[in-house]
Amino acid sequence: MKTFQDIGILVKEIEPKQIFKDPKLFVAFGFGSGLSKIAPGTMGSLVAIFLWYPLSLLPFGIYALFLVACFYLGISICGYASVLLEKHDYGGIVFDEFLGIWIALLTYPVTLHGIAVVFLLFRIFDIWKPWPISYVDGKVKGGIGVMLDDVLAGFLTLMIVGLIKGLGIPI
């Protein structure tokens, strides 16, 4: 039986086929993108961008409601996956990255350059975890903890890109 590893720490054994059979795990693992052996969070964020494009065509209010619904769904499924794997915020759980990048892209026009800037900033904040993201990441447990640090990284990205655009720097 194969095991997943997270920075050299073995987590509860689970086979990849189990992820594809369990709808909650399948979504928590970003429709399989979290199975990447190299940078699963980055792979999940890339998949999320492809799923984001049709979302970007929705009216703002519906998009915002969708994000709220994904937050509550994510608390449930990411918490479920963490309990099953017996590891809080396991790297292969990437649905939180989906929501974070969707928040970061909330108000920006669809351009390849803009998407690339948002993607890079989001990944930097998600990996680096500046305050208050680091505080939440260390203190808040369960499904809400898994989701909340990426939500904060998404909002921080949204604010920084808004500031850049507000200064008249084209993105």
What key attributes describe this structure?
single chain; 171 residues; mainly alpha; 8 helices; 67% helix; disordered N terminus
Description:
This protein has 171 residues and is an all-alpha fold. The protein has one domain (5-166). Helix content is 67%, strand content 2%. It has helices at residues 16-21, 23-28, 40-56, 60-85, 95-104, 112-128, 133-139, 142-166, and strands at residues 5-6, 9-10. The chain has a two-stranded antiparallel sheet. β1 and β2 (9-10) form a beta hairpin. The longest helix has 26 residues, at 60-85.
Brief characterization of the structure:
The protein is mainly alpha-helical and 171 residues long. The chain is built from eight helices and two strands.
Helix content: 55-70%
Low-pLDDT segments: 1-11
Taken from the alpha-carbon principal axes, the silhouette is globular
Structural class: mainly alpha
> Topology as H/E string?
EEHHHHHHHH
Radius of gyration: 16 Å
What count of structural domains?
A: 1
Task: Please describe the topology of this protein.
Elements: E1 5-6, E2 9-10, H1 16-21, H2 23-28, H3 40-56, H4 60-85, H5 95-104, H6 112-128, H7 133-139, H8 142-166
Antiparallel strand pairs: 1-2
Helix pairs in contact: 3-5, 4-5, 4-8, 5-6, 5-8, 6-8, 7-8
